[in-house]
Specification:
The protein has six helices and two strands. It has a two-stranded antiparallel sheet. It has one domain. Helices cover 72% and strands 5% of the residues. α2 packs across α4. The chain is globular and about 40 Å long. It has 160 residues and is mainly α.
């Protein structure tokens, strides 16, 4: 529920909130997609084989790069000027999203489940689609809150 509340408070009905949500989605989705394709193409040592045997270190690194590129591109396209800071925020969100993904995998393994549900066949369940987003949404809210205060967390990072 903290993640849903974080998304709502980030959005907050203003233009900065919209940019914050789009930035969050771009970083998390690009991280997930890039990590998958880089990991498949490059391979190499496993990231956390006892938790998620398919994830590789190269995929994690590729995902982080993809998340940063997507975040900076979105920020640039929307006219937000602090691209260096937002690149660092994107990197942090990418790492947090990957940690959220690993945490969800750990929970499934701990309970002897391959999937968190069967609503989306072949995708590990709904939580497999949003595990990184759940973690990153809360992280972005906290980063924004530290930057601008509790009243408008998105405006601290995405001033328009």
């Amino acid at each position: 529920s903290l993640s849903g509340l974080s998304l709502a408070m980030l959005r907050d009905g203003d233009h900065s909130g919209l940019i914050a949500i789009l930035f969050l989605f771009a970083v998390v989705w690009a991280t997930d997609i890039t990590a998958y394709f880089v990991g498949r193409a490059v391979g190499g040592p496993k990231l956390a084989p006892s938790i998620s045997p398919g994830k590789t270190q190269s995929g994690a690194l590729g995902g982080a790069v993809g998340g940063v590129v997507a975040g900076v591109l979105l920020a640039s396209a929307t006219g937000v000027g602090n691209l260096g800071t937002l690149g660092l925020v994107a990197l942090a969100l990418s790492v947090v999203a990957q940690a959220g993904d690993l945490f969800e995998s750990w929970v499934k393994r701990r309970h002897g489940q391959k999937d968190s549900g069967n609503l989306i066949p072949g995708h590990g369940g709904v939580m497999d689609r949003v595990d990184g987003l759940v973690a990153a949404a809360l992280a972005l809210y906290v980063i924004g809150w530290i930057s601008a205060g509790a009243d408008h967390p998105a405006q601290g990072l995405f001033p328009i």
